[in-house]
Design a protein that fits this description.
heterodimer; A: mainly beta; 6-stranded mixed beta sheet; 12 strands; 0% helix; globular; B: 119 residues; mainly beta; 4-stranded antiparallel beta sheet
Chain lengths: 115, 119
C-alpha cells in the first residue's frame, strides 16, 4: 500500500531564510508524488508533481522538490521564504490501481514565517 | 475558467439530521473525487466517480454516507443521521482523465470545501 510520512508537523522559519519540509513515501511501485499547499479558508493548490521524468521538480512560487528513490524521500525546498508562504503543506502520493487515482495525503506540515 | 465549486461553504447540522453537499466540477472533467478532512489532519479519500459511474466507494466510513453523480457532472454527497464524528471539511476534486495517457500523474483540482459542524 502507498503512504507518505511528513516528518514535521510544524516548521518555523524567518523571512528570507531557506525552507525545508520533509516527506518520506512508501510505495509498491514507482510512485507519482505531489506537494499541495492549503492556505486558510482556501482550497488545496498543487505546488508541484513528480511523475518519473526529472528527479528535480520545479513548482510554483519558487518551490522545488527532489525525488530520491534510494532514500524514499521527496522533500520540498525553497531558497528564501516569504511571508505569503505561511500555510499548510501536504505531501501526497497517488494510489493508482486500474482506473482509480485517488490521492493519499500526509498529515501536513504547518509552515510559519516570522518577519 | 471556473474552478471546482462547492456548496454550501458552511453547514451546521444537529445530530441526527440529514445533509447534502454539492460539488460542481470543472466543465468536461470526467473524474470526480470526494475527500474528508478532519481538523488538523490531511484529507482522506471517500469515493471516486468516472462520469456517472461510482468506481470506488471504499473510503466511505459507513452506510450513512452516500454519493451520486447521476448525469456525470454535478455530484452530491449525502450524509444521513449525522453524528458528531462527521464534523469535518468535505473536499471535492475533479480531474481530466485524458491526462492519464501521457503520464501517470493525476492532477486533481480541488474546490474550497464544505465545513460541516454537527452539534
Amino acid at each position: 500500500a502507498q503512504s507518505v510520512t511528513q516528518l514535521d508537523s510544524h516548521v518555523s522559519v524567518s523571512e528570507g531564510t531557506p525552507v525545508l519540509l520533509r516527506c518520506n513515501y512508501s510505495s509498491s511501485y514507482s510512485p507519482s508524488l505531489f506537494w499541495y499547499v492549503q492556505h486558510p479558508n482556501k482550497g488545496l493548490q498543487l505546488l508541484l508533481k513528480y511523475t518519473s521524468a526529472a528527479t528535480l521538480v520545479k513548482g510554483i512560487n519558487g518551490f522545488e522538490a527532489e525525488f530520491k528513490k534510494s532514500e524514499t524521500s521527496f522533500h520540498l525546498t525553497k531558497p528564501s521564504a516569504h511571508m505569503s508562504d505561511a500555510a499548510e503543506y501536504f505531501c501526497v502520493v497517488s494510489d493508482r490501481r486500474g482506473s482509480q487515482g485517488n490521492l493519499i495525503f500526509g498529515k501536513g506540515t504547518k509552515l510559519s514565517v516570522k518577519p | 475558467g471556473a474552478g471546482v465549486s462547492q456548496s454550501p461553504r458552511y453547514k451546521v447540522a444537529k445530530r441526527g439530521q440529514d445533509v447534502a453537499l454539492r460539488c460542481d466540477p470543472i466543465s468536461g472533467h470526467v473524474s470526480l473525487f470526494w475527500y474528508q478532512q478532519a481538523l488538523g489532519q490531511g484529507p482522506e479519500f471517500l469515493t471516486y466517480f468516472q462520469n456517472e459511474a461510482q468506481l470506488d466507494k471504499s473510503g466511505l466510513p459507513s452506510d450513512r454516507f452516500f454519493a451520486e453523480r447521476p448525469e456525470g457532472s454535478v455530484s452530491t454527497l449525502k450524509i444521513q443521521r449525522t453524528q458528531q464524528e462527521d464534523s469535518a471539511v468535505y473536499l471535492c476534486a475533479s480531474s481530466d482523465s485524458r491526462q492519464r495517457r501521457d503520464t501517470k500523474s493525476y492532477e486533481q483540482y480541488f474546490g474550497p470545501g464544505t465545513r460541516l459542524t454537527v452539534t
